[in-house]
Write a structure and sequence with these properties.
Strands 1-6-2-7-10 form a 5-stranded mixed beta barrel. It is globular. With 183 residues, it is mainly beta. It is built from 1 helix and 10 strands; from the N terminus they run E-H-E-E-E-E-E-E-E-E-E.
Length: 183
């Protein structure tokens, strides 16, 4: 069995997700993202996935078929939509090693889902700040997040609203520990 940490963004769950509980078996399409692309970056070190395997194209999406059996997309869109310079140098049949954060992605191209048992679920609360006070635009403050264990993933997430410092804390999704069978 492989143990993987997967971030499931609030908007992905609220739009098209089906809540689940610890102990349940789930299937989701996974995307490997740079940790700097998720909620402003910051400290994800103990949650990063190290994947090694062969690159393939599945229904037009570039994926990495990890040697344990995990299949993760390298881009959320099909290769005909991604700019050639953003595809990277990896080509089908290349063997590569990447490190990143596994995320659930249900709005891009279609690729195989990963099936596994949910070992635990933590709600991730992220702090946000307005880059320009009064702009109404909120951006994640890198590394300013907290985790709270729960038994089930909610369908809807909470926003505490602005505090006295002009910042707000919002439930930005869940971090799931997934036990996925190996090939």
């Amino acid at each position: 069995m492989g143990i993987w940490h997967v971030f499931y963004a609030d908007w992905q769950m609220e739009c098209c997700g089906k809540p689940f509980s610890a102990g349940e078996e789930v299937s989701r399409p996974l995307l490997l993202k740079s940790s700097g692309e998720v909620l402003g970056g910051g400290d994800w070190d103990d949650r990063l996935a190290k994947v090694v395997g062969e690159v393939a194209d599945v229904r037009g999406v570039r994926v990495l078929q990890e040697e344990t059996g995990l299949t993760v997309a390298l881009h959320e869109h099909t290769v005909d939509v991604v700019a050639p310079e953003d595809l990277g140098e990896e080509r089908p049949r290349d063997r590569i090693r990447l490190v990143g954060l596994l995320t659930v992605e249900t709005h891009g191209g279609q690729w195989p889902e990963v099936t596994g048992r949910v070992r635990d679920i933590q709600i991730l609360t992220q702090e946000y700040a307005e880059p320009v006070p009064g702009s109404g635009t909120w951006e994640p403050v890198p590394g300013e997040r907290a985790l709270r264990p729960v038994d089930s993933c909610p369908k809807w997430f909470k926003d505490t609203g602005p505090d006295s410092r002009g910042r707000r804390r919002m439930e930005a999704g869940v971090l799931v520990t997934l036990e996925a069978p190996t090939a």
